[in-house]
């Protein structure tokens, strides 16, 4: 029987290590599925930083996908309907190359670059010149990421 309108399924795998069968437990509730505030691609070569950033954005209602490299990010941009790209400049030359190529693949996407502490102001200026919407200097200040992402997403609604 299909779920009622507005119902949400939750599934959980239970596997037995002794070679027994696996099963899925499914529960239904009537809570409506949350509406996404937008789709974001988080790119960075540091797994922990990327994961924590993605979790924070998901908790704020965004649909988030992650990429560990520029190549992976470009493949995702080409097919995923991303509205905002949040990328660490990683190594400045690689990060700026990703920014340039991302805007070629998906010209509609907004880009916020994350600059490592100690990065030169030239990197920030160059990222903006190449088409970044904004940049954030690390380490992140409480609330700054949320504010900048919200501002970017709001600008999409206005334009």
Secondary-structure blueprint of this entry?
Elements: E1 8-15, E2 22-29, E3 39-43, H1 47-59, E4 63-67, H2 70-79, E5 84-88, H3 92-105, E6 110-115, H4 121-129, E7 134-137, H5 144-158
**Fraction in helix:** 25-40%
**N- to C-terminal separation?**
43 Å
- State the strand order across the main sheet: 4-3-5-6-7
Instruction: Label the overall shape.
Output: globular
Rg, Å, rounded: 19 Å
Helix-strand pattern, N to C?
EEEHEHEHEHEH
**Which band does the percent of strand residues land in?**
25-35%
The biggest beta sheet reads: 5 strands, parallel
**Which structural class fits the helix and strand makeup?**
alpha/beta
Query: What does the average pLDDT come to?
Result: 80
Query: What's the β-strand tally?
Result: 7
Number of helices: 5
Unreliable residue runs:
1-33
Describe the protein's architecture and organization.
This protein has a five-stranded parallel β-sheet, with helices on both faces. A two-stranded antiparallel ribbon has the order 1-2. The chain is an alpha/beta fold and 159 residues long. The chain is globular. Strand 3, helix 1 and strand 4 (63-67) form a beta-alpha-beta unit. Helix 2 packs parallel to helix 3 (92-105). 38% of the residues lie in helices and 26% in strands. The protein is built from five helices and seven strands; from the N terminus they run E-E-E-H-E-H-E-H-E-H-E-H.
């Amino acid at each position: 029987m299909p779920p009622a309108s507005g119902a949400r399924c939750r599934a959980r795998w239970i596997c037995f290590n002794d070679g027994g069968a696996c099963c899925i437990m499914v529960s239904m509730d009537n809570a409506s599925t949350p509406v996404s505030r937008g789709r974001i691609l988080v790119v960075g070569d540091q797994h922990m930083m990327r994961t924590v950033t993605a979790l924070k954005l998901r908790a704020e209602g965004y649909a988030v996908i992650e990429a560990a490299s520029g190549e992976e990010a470009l493949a995702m941009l080409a097919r995923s309907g991303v509205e905002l790209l949040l990328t660490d400049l990683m190594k400045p030359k690689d990060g700026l190359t990703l920014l340039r190529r991302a805007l070629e693949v998906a010209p509609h996407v907004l880009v916020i670059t994350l600059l490592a502490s100690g990065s030169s102001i030239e990197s920030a200026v160059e990222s903006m010149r190449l088409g970044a919407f904004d940049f954030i200097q690390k380490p992140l200040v409480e609330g700054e990421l949320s504010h900048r992402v919200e501002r970017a997403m709001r600008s999409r609604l206005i334009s």
